[in-house]
Write a structure and sequence with these properties.
By secondary structure, the protein is mostly helical. It has 26 helices and four strands.
């Protein structure tokens, strides 16, 4: 008679894997110190404004209709931006990975541009093109009563600037879907639309949900675009920033910002629930060959038209930055000049060096940490797993101003006296941007059959060896996407680090913002262009070091 094996709980499994136990301890302590603790300091400031416990700040917020309206506006803007960005990101990912559409290399480069410029400079470009005195609205069309300010302008700006976030996640997911499944359905007589609807789209659900979540949270936390382009359309992030910097009401500012955690966490839980309902495994270790599925000419050229239109908009927006770097006074005197370059080099050289150094330190740490957390969340069972996933998203869910204030409050006294150092900037970059790597890694790992890693473990390999030699190569597209995003955000961050920079460690985007505030738009354009060149150069180097994602890594996945 067979004897039932005793049920092994999560604690027992954790004790049997010392590498996992040590990793969890280090990650948990790091997340608490550098995410939870600063946010707790901010929260306590909102409920103890004068050292006395009270909820008067929150009651005051909900009693005023304009603040309630700001909350509604934030949710509306975030939902619209996330929806449009995810749709556009999926169109690009599908077109570049499932069709033989022309100019794919060009489109892959273009889709990265919106991520590598300070957001306020992008908004400035939109105003210069589509504002009341814009080159397009007034100069070409002769329209003088058109207003780009408000919800419509914000949806346009945020969608164009944030859809690359969705694309970078969905690109890795599309590369992970085995084309044998789609070709098998075609061979059985299914038409192309039926294959897309019943196979490709359902298998993309983890990436779609992750993309929507990331863009939604990014939109909620953005204050630079609404600050410049919002007009009368107030959002909570702007109100929180104004309370901090304009009215010097830090308790109310923190309370407004903390309210943004609620919709962000609801979105996060819904995404996790949606993904956990079904299996999305497509990578099983069986050999497959890299190939493009045949699509109809109508589909191929329709996708080409949509991608071309989006890229045309991007080129028009970013063309203003390039033009602004070489003209004397934008909108007044378009005489060619190099004076802005000489001035920008004189005032910005130290900031450029500091920014690149900080980004180079933060990027690999962020990428590796994101993949490690994604791996243990998807592949391992341990107590507090769901809580760990929630905590890892907190820094990304709140406005950067709150993160910056939290770091000032938390690390301005011993034993962690970090204010004014490079360390506090690197830590801010790492723990604020690591959720992107986590989401990309989770979306890719869900598609990989556990039996591949289990075979390695059964043969005696440790958890660390299995992760570094088996799992990480399989999720290389997601890892590369995490590195790209971490570097670009480290180079273009504004809201959090504006409170953390010092005379020794300055940042290029803060310098661009200061030049914009004093209306040196030419110098700001030059500095933005320099930033774009640096990031594009770093992208090329990272592809050489980590590997190109265009081959879908199927040769690695096909090994038994």
């Amino acid at each position: 008679m067979a004897v039932a094996k005793p049920r092994r709980n999560k604690w027992w499994q954790l004790k049997q894997d010392p590498v996992l136990l040590i990793t969890l301890i280090i990650i948990s302590i790091s997340l608490f110190v550098f995410i939870v603790y600063p946010l707790l300091r901010v929260f306590f400031l909102s409920i103890r404004p004068r050292g006395i416990f009270t909820f008067d700040i929150y009651r005051g917020i909900f009693s005023q209709w304009w603040l309630r309206q700001s909350l509604y506006n934030s949710l509306l803007l975030g939902s619209l931006t996330a929806t449009f960005s995810t749709i556009i990101g999926f169109i690009f990912a599908y077109a570049l990975n499932r069709t033989n559409m022309p100019l794919q290399g060009f489109f892959r480069q273009m889709v990265q541009l919106p991520l590598i410029s300070p957001p306020f400079m992008f908004t400035l470009s939109v105003i210069l093109l589509l504002g009341r005195n814009g080159l397009i609205t007034k100069g070409l069309l002769g329209i003088t009563n058109f207003s780009i300010y408000g919800l419509n302008g914000l949806v346009l700006v945020q969608t164009i600037s944030m859809f690359p976030i969705a694309f970078m996640t969905l690109n890795g997911v599309m590369q992970g879907i085995n084309p044998d499944l789609e070709e098998g359905a075609l061979d059985l007589g299914a038409n192309r639309f039926a294959v897309f609807r019943s196979i490709t789209l359902p298998l993309s659900v983890p990436g779609l949900a992750s993309s929507w979540l990331l863009v939604f949270v990014t939109s909620l936390a953005d204050f630079a675009n609404p600050m410049v382009l919002g007009g009368t359309f107030d959002v909570l992030s702007v109100q929180a920033y104004l309370q901090f910097t304009g009215m010097f009401n830090a308790p109310r500012g923190t309370a407004l910002a903390m309210l943004l955690l609620i919709p962000a966490m609801i979105a996060f839980l819904f995404q996790r629930y949606l993904v956990s309902r079904k299996s999305y495994v497509t990578v099983t270790g069986k050999p497959s060959s890299p190939r493009i599925l045949e699509v109809s000419p109508w589909t191929r050229w329709s996708l080409f038209g949509v991608c071309s239109l989006v890229c045309l908009v991007i080129l028009a927006f970013y063309g203003t930055v390039i033009m602004g770097a070489f003209v004397k006074t934008w909108g007044v005197d378009f005489t060619f000049t190099l004076e802005h370059w000489r001035y920008a080099w004189d005032v910005g050289l130290n900031s450029i060096k500091s920014t690149v150094f900080l980004a180079l330190i933060a990027t690999p740490i962020t990428g590796i940490l994101g993949m490690v957390i994604a791996y243990i969340l998807v592949r391992k069972e341990f107590p507090g797993k769901k809580f760990l996933g929630l905590v890892s998203m907190l820094a990304f869910a709140v406005p950067g101003t709150v993160v910056g204030i939290g770091y000032i409050l938390a690390f301005n006294e011993p034993p962690l006296l970090l204010t004014g150092t490079a360390t506090i900037l690197v830590l801010c970059f790492v723990f604020r941007e690591v959720p992107v790597g986590i989401e990309s890694g989770v979306a890719s790992l869900i598609q990989i059959d556990r039996s591949i890693e289990e075979a390695s473990t059964n043969l005696g390999a440790s958890t660390g060896y299995t992760f570094s030699r088996i799992t990480l190569p399989l999720i290389r597209p997601a890892f590369l996407a995490g590195l790209f995003f971490a570097f670009t955000r480290s180079m273009t961050a504004v809201s959090a680090i504006i409170f953390l920079v010092s005379a020794r460690w300055h940042h290029l985007t803060v310098l661009v913002l200061s030049q914009t505030e004093i209306m040196r738009l030419g110098a700001a354009s030059v500095l933005s262009l320099i930033l774009i060149i640096i990031v594009l150069g770093a992208f090329a180097i990272m592809r050489l070091v980590v590997g190109d994602t265009t081959n879908r890594q199927l040769s690695t996945r096909g090994r038994n």
